[in-house]
Specification:
By secondary structure, the protein is an alpha/beta fold. It has 7 helices and 9 strands; from the N terminus they run βαβαβαβαββαβαββα. The protein has a single domain, classed as Spore Coat Polysaccharide Biosynthesis Protein SpsA, Chain A (Alpha-Beta Complex), CATH 3.90.550.
């Protein structure tokens, strides 16, 4: 469908009941599907291999969703990496919209439940208010214009993925990664996405502890010094130029 290779990365921990639906909706033209297992005990890996024979299964290098994403992105071989949830909340049928936005000029694409065409069936009012608060804080601190900051449906050119704060193991990875990419001067585009209720099982996220971690992560990012470049083989660097931490960086693709 697209003239690029697309890798789909799916972190999973005890999601055997959800994976048949999720994997069944991944577009056939996707180059590879990588399941990053957090050492599940419910047969997640076995179910994944039964449903999709071509799936690649790897195991994350540390605890936490951020660690799983880091492991998956490092293993990806496609030009583009799309990050999906294993619980059915993020719809694989939306992958073409994310890839299309990247091909149209974006460096990073993030889903938003709060732009026209987006929505959620799995976000209580208190979490919506918390997300709104994080958005206000992040936009004020980093001069961004995000409408949603805690949603994990994202896609990136693989050579830009290092900008997504992949060194962070925990839940704050997704929110901090969004503002980190903006700090690097990358073009971050939001596309409408609908968040569904998880198919089965219990959510791993606990709202209050996760919210506190996310808030601390966003605030800490404001004072963190950026490395000189990301993805040394991917971002262009002018050896004679002095680049301030907040300055835009030219990309090579």
């Amino acid at each position: 469908m697209f003239d690029v290779a697309v890798s789909v990365v799916i972190p999973a921990l005890n999601e055997a009941d959800s994976l048949p639906l999720v994997l069944g909706r991944v577009p056939d033209w996707v180059h590879e599907v990588i399941l990053v297992d957090g050492y599940s005990t419910d047969g997640t890996v076995e179910v994944a291999r039964q449903v999709m024979q071509r799936i690649r299964v790897i195991y994350q290098d540390a605890n936490g969703k951020g660690a799983a994403l880091r492991t998956g992105v490092a293993a990806a071989t496609g030009d583009i990496v799309v990050m999906l949830d294993a619980d059915g909340s993020t719809d694989p049928a939306e992958v073409p919209a994310f890839v299309g936005a990247l091909l149209a000029g974006a460096d990073i694409v993030k889903g938003s439940r709060f732009v026209q065409g987006g929505g959620t069936a799995d976000m209580p009012r208190i979490r919506q208010l918390a997300n709104w608060g994080f958005v206000v804080i992040a936009n004020a601190l980093f001069r961004t214009q995000f409408s949603d900051i805690t949603y994990g449906y994202r896609a990136a050119w693989r050579h830009c993925a290092d900008a997504l704060a992949l060194e962070i193991d925990g839940w704050e990875n997704e929110s901090v990664g969004n503002v980190r990419a903006a700090r690097f001067g990358l073009k971050v585009v939001e596309v409408a996405s609908f968040e569904h209720r998880r198919v089965a099982g219990e959510a791993k996220l606990r709202a209050v502890p996760a919210g506190w971690v996310i808030l601390k992560g966003i605030l800490a990012e404001r004072w963190k010094k950026l490395p000189a470049r990301i993805g040394a083989a991917a971002l262009a660097a002018d050896a004679n130029a002095e680049v301030a931490p907040e300055a835009s960086m030219a990309l090579t693709k």
